[in-house]
Automatic annotation (TrEMBL):
GO terms for molecular function: DNA-binding transcription factor activity; sequence-specific DNA binding. It holds the Pfam family HTH_18. This is AraC family transcriptional regulator, positive regulator of tynA and feaB. Signal peptide: none annotated. The keyword Ubl conjugation does not apply. Residues 202-302 form the HTH araC/xylS-type domain. It comes from Pseudomonas linyingensis. The keyword Transcription regulation applies.
């Protein structure tokens, strides 16, 4: 192997190690001796984004790399300079400067770059996307064109966020929510208004939200109110990879967490649980820690 090829391989390996450390496991190949790559990260609270410079290379993720990652999120990819070919499943697109796309981290993907490409990759937690889209299907690997209002506003928001120093956890989470809300029209798969199952599912979610504070809310009550059998209700949620009782519990916990982020230190945690439908304060505390990794009191301290 000649010296030039050795230099390219060493540069590729060094760059890939950095990519894997910041963005999760990928594979890479140099597409010629002109390969060049660099990556730098910005982190502020819940915001985790990487600025990736790459030329003459292929970056890809096989099922093996997917299995080595947690697959809990999406990459919102903002093309800053040059062009890139992005592929996932049967979709293959080309991004030009100002374009945006969404890539599912839980599925294989394949990206190719020519000369002078620069991207900003922002990790969007899966729960943030699903909460905003209310479990509608997500359209990944589709171009959100630079000239569209959605792309203009989203580019402005993410660039301004990267310039800010000292964003609090609450501020950074609000920024993620705002970004996903901006992208929602472009990444949410259109629903078929004639799909009875989809209409019933939306009715079920609406009923849950209206009665979320009531301890009596349960799958049996929900099935009766929307007019389906209990088995039919379970199947309806299973199509979205959801479990009814688990969804109700997690919805309550998410609302409790939101209240804690804005609450003062005088809020009684037991009262909070009761307010959102938990009849047992010990169960509420255990379930909260299982979902968020910390007890309610510690979670509140983070936002104070």
């Amino acid at each position: 192997m000649n010296t030039r090829q050795t230099t390219v391989d060493e540069a590729l390996d060094g760059w890939l190690q950095r990519v894997n450390a910041l963005c999760g496991r990928f594979c890479a190949k140099a597409l010629g001796p002109e390969f060049a790559g660099a990556i730098e990260q910005y982190r502020g609270g819940a915001l985790q984004m990487s600025f990736v410079d790459i030329a003459h290379a292929r970056l890809y993720r096989t099922p093996q790399e997917v299995a080595a990652n947690d697959g809990k999120g999406y990459y919102a990819v903002f093309q800053l300079a040059g062009s890139a070919c992005m592929a996932q499943d049967a979709q293959r697109i080309v991004l030009e400067p100002g374009d945006i796309t969404l890539i599912d981290a839980a599925r294989p993907s394949d990206f190719s770059y020519g000369a002078g490409a620069r991207q900003l990759s922002l990790i969007l937690p899966r729960e943030v996307v699903e909460r905003s889209l209310r479990f509608a299907a997500v359209r990944s690997c589709e171009v959100i064109a630079a000239h569209t209002p959605v792309a203009v506003l989203a580019n402005s928001l993410v660039h301004e966020s990267a310039r800010q120093e000292g964003l609090s956890l609450l501020e950074s989470e609000a920024t993620l929510d705002a970004l996903v809300s901006l992208l929602r029209p472009a990444i949410s798969a259109s629903e078929n208004a004639d799909d009875l199952h989809e209409r019933l599912f939306r009715r079920a979610l609406a009923f849950i939200d209206r009665h979320i504070c009531e301890p009596e809310l349960c799958p049996e009550l929900l099935a009766r109110e929307i007019g389906v059998s209990l088995r039919g209700l379970y199947r309806m949620f299973a199509r979205k990879e959801l479990v009814v009782a688990q969804y109700i519990r997690n919805r309550r916990l998410d609302l409790c967490a939101e209240a804690l982020r804005h609450a003062g230190s005088d809020l009684k945690l037991s009262a909070l649980g009761y307010a959102w439908g938990f009849s047992d304060s010990s169960y509420f505390s255990t379930a909260f820690k299982a979902r968020f990794g910390v007890a309610p009191g510690e979670y509140r301290k983070r936002y104070q």
